[in-house]
Amino acid sequence: MTLEFALKTTLALAGISNFVQAAELLSIRKDWSDQKGIWRWRDLRQEYRSLSPPIYGLFTLILSEKGFLITQAFRIVSSILLIACLWLPMAQHISPLACWITLAGALFSAIRWRGAFNGGSDAMNLVVLIPLSVAQLFGPDSEMAVRVALGYIALQSVLSYWVAGFVKIREAEWRQGKALPLFLATPQYAVPTEVVRLIQTSPYGAWVASWGVMLFELTFPVVLFTPKWAPFLLGIGFVFHFANAALLGLNRFVFAWAATYPALLVMGQILAESLQPFL
Amino acid sequence: MIAFLPPQNGFIFVALTLFVILFWVPRRESNSPTLRLFRALFPSWRFFDRTGEVPRLEARRAQDSTPQWKEVIPPRPRPLTAWVFNPAGNRDFALHTLVGQLVSDLQDTPDATPEAILTTVSYTLVKNLVESRMPMMADGEEYQFRLVALGPDHSTEEFFVSPVETKRATP
């Protein structure tokens, strides 16, 4: 995989991720409408009053219902452009603006929901968009900027799995296979009752699944050092996120994390090439 | 190993080391509401680490002769398409986060007067939530909501009951 192709693929996958997120927000517009919504700007705005008047004015313009509607509509269009950059001949001229508009849409939606609409997926989406947007400022020929951007994305992706595995293995309930059934039974995830019953009635299965999750997450950094096996490991990662989406409803994580995979592939290659003379 | 690597790749190892060091530094939740607005910029990646009690929001109409508490955000079955497009499910996650924010506000200000809690943004938004989810409730009708801690063993313990509120007229 070339650096240029990795960049284009990352942009396209980030486009898909942001398209889904913006479309979901637009489809629940009644929940954030200024008239009958739950997250009305006139209720939210008191938390923003400590900001300086120009920033507060900007936020009022963007985060009130009409402004937010326009922001998310722009985010949808810019996301489509990021996807189209895979094929468009003038991609290098379009992608910087599309990237910054998408980033603004994503950042403002996190801010409007008092920090995050959907926790981890919002964070990973920004982890991908921020370095990509900054790298685009250095012009289309800046290989170093692209390298740094994709390196940062790959690092955060690896860390996200490893940290998630590490905090689990520290807990006795996870090591004993007791935590997973409890999380799956948490009402807010609305896991199908058959699945909850199955895992609650088979402690051995719960133990195997728990250790499977922990070992997968803890060993994920291997992906950077085994380029030949990387596609296989990333395939497991995709299945893992798909299972989370199907069981827990975490669909946004599938797209947000998939957008980091091209960076992992290309960084694995670069590392292998760099280390080859010493091995 | 860094010394052997070409300079453009050495940064990866430096950054990795920095990230690992940062991970070991104990994290503290910021009490600044302004900083909290930007928390998505500071990822933590600590998913599903500890089990424990989860808060559940319940509400009842004050005028019913035998008012029953009802869950405000009941779990709902997911359509098959939800693994791609899940607006209702993600909205419900955001609602659970909102309830968690009210719980945090209650914990952060244990000595606050009840009036102080009632003027927080979290309380106002939870009121909006209850009013939008209580079926057939007319403008001006009275209701109450409460927070219950739901334990892993399905035990429940009430820890907050709102004063009687009145449904506001929608503009």
Please explain how this structure is put together.
The complex is a heterodimer of chains A (279) and B (171). Chain A has 279 residues and is mainly alpha-helical. Chain A has one domain. Helix content of chain A is 73%, strand content 0%. The longest helix of chain A is centred in the middle third of the chain and has 27 residues, at 143-169. Chain A is flat. Chain A starts with a helix and ends with a helix. In chain B, strands 1, 2, 3, 4 and 5 form a 5-stranded antiparallel β-sheet that branches. In chain B, helix 3 crosses helix 5. Chain B is globular. Chain B starts with 6 loop residues before the first helix and ends in a 5-residue tail after the last strand. Chains A and B meet through helix 1, helix 5, helix 6, helix 7 and helix 9 of A and helix 1, helix 2, helix 3 and helix 5 of B.
The proportion of residues in beta strands of chain B is 15-25%
Mean pLDDT of chain A: 93
Tell me the domain tally of chain A: 1
Order of helices and strands of chain B: HHEEHHHEEE
Quote the distance from N terminus to C terminus of chain A. Answer: 22 Å
Oligomer: heterodimer
Q: Low-confidence stretches of chain B at least 5 residues in length (pLDDT < 50)?
A: none
Task: List its traits.
heterodimer; A: 279 residues; mainly alpha; 14 helices; 0% strand; flat; B: 171 residues; alpha+beta; 2 domains; five-stranded antiparallel β-sheet; 5 helices; 36% helix
Briefly say what this structure is.
The complex is a heterodimer of chains A (279) and B (171). Chain A contains 14 helices and no strands.
Per-chain topology:
The complex is a heterodimer of chains A (279) and B (171).
Chain A lengths: L2 H25 L13 H4 L8 H11 L1 H20 L6 H22 L6 H18 L6 H27 L2 H4 L3 H6 L8 H8 L2 H17 L10 H19 L2 H8 L2 H15 L4
Helix pairs in contact in A: 1-4, 1-5, 1-6, 1-7, 1-13, 1-14, 3-4, 4-5, 5-6, 6-7, 6-13, 7-11, 7-14, 12-13
Chain B lengths: L6 H18 L8 H4 L17 E8 L8 E2 L15 H22 L5 H5 L2 H13 L8 E9 L5 E6 L3 E2 L5
Antiparallel strand pairs in B: 1-2, 1-3, 3-4, 3-5
Helix pairs in contact in B: 3-5
